[in-house]
């Protein structure tokens, strides 16, 4: 799965913002790279206070990205080249500009009033002590017009919907059907674990300065997910549901797969927080397997996304480790998610203060994709954010024909994954670490592949002499593992 942040992918009309026609123009690149599906971050009409995650209309396309016709053309063209299309759907909240909320705040008796979460204050303050994301401020805002607070787990301009209301659920299901009817192959559901809430509950005192977002885990959410799954199951073909469940405990995340009747896939965010340590990776892999395998649930793996610093930045630009991380990501059992630009080894851009636009401080990882070596890097207008450093050297043009580049390595690992059944469907066994090296086997009947990653800065003797090296993150030398090297070997039985 290849995540595209549309604003930053490819600009077709020179306004500095990436768009749907720009995505369509690069479908041949994605097909060449070998990915199976693309996931589009939100493209809905929006005031862009949170760059599309504040939705003003769930059944349209914002003019900055193009039109519904452009979207339909993109889906059709993607299907023609064998790519599936997943759309980011934002079920937890809307923009304050959405007609539902505009009508809801007119009066306490408004038709849509109970589509949102309104409460009287307690002891002269908010209804509970929840804190919103990216801030130490309350997750409640006072509305002078109707003398009540409304809940927003994110910006005050993103009021939370009331999923207890059956009319809300019905309306949101209809928005989902709108896109499924247009041929969308699945949805990525933003912060889906927030749908159910217990508003009478305070967060623990020691957690009061932590956003409520990673703390919310309420039983009613699972019923809502089963209803959403039923909508997807009404459609022919494999329509996938992918949930952003921002809970770092694999056992809690596993619950959101249900009994095969909730999410098809749930994001596993633990790797974003463990650094580059062999033992930590081993622990996450083992815990994830232990949580999901009893449910026959399929894992996911990520290195970066639009909300976190890129893996190359987190690894301080260490090229060998970045390359090894890509091999690791694409050889684990489960579905890997590539954030556009990871295949190029991009680092975050350094954003001058005058060009900062994101309230959550995430501009750096959202820098535009460099397509060419030229100073404009293939963008016909000045892009909405500056490019990352060394963008020309990291561009698609600079790397595509270089057999030793990060882009070529990524393509080779994807191709190996496609051609080797053990990497696609095999079990993952013998997950081991000695503190310096992580290794595991991918196994299917008649085939055993061993993945070995040297997390250290030292050369190590780490391979059996009769193992056949299928792929290395660098030029491999005999039975030695170079510093930061990752290899995939065929193990002789």
Q: Key terms for this structure?
A:
TIM Barrel; Immunoglobulin-like; 3 domains; 5-stranded antiparallel β-sheet; 18 strands
Explain this structure.
- It is a single chain.
- With 493 residues, this protein is an alpha/beta fold.
- It has three domains: 2-91 and 166-418, Glycosidases (TIM Barrel, Alpha-Beta Barrel); 99-151, Oligo-1,6-glucosidase, domain 2, CATH 3.90.400.10; 426-490, Sandwich (Immunoglobulin-like).
- 26% of the residues lie in helices and 16% in strands.
- It contains 14 helices and 18 strands.
- α5 runs parallel beside α6.
- The longest helix is centred in the middle third of the chain and has 15 residues, at 166-180.
- It is globular.
Topology:
Elements: E1 2-4, H1 20-25, H2 27-33, E2 37-40, H3 68-80, E3 84-89, H4 99-104, E4 118-119, E5 140-143, E6 148-151, H5 166-180, E7 186-189, H6 220-233, E8 240-243, H7 250-254, E9 265-266, H8 278-292, E10 300-302, H9 311-314, H10 319-331, E11 335-339, H11 391-394, H12 396-400, H13 406-419, H14 421-425, E12 427-433, E13 437-444, E14 447-454, E15 460-461, E16 468-472, E17 480-481, E18 486-490
Parallel strand pairs: 1-2, 1-11, 2-3, 3-7, 7-8, 8-9, 10-11
Antiparallel strand pairs: 4-6, 5-6, 12-13, 13-14, 14-18, 15-17, 16-18
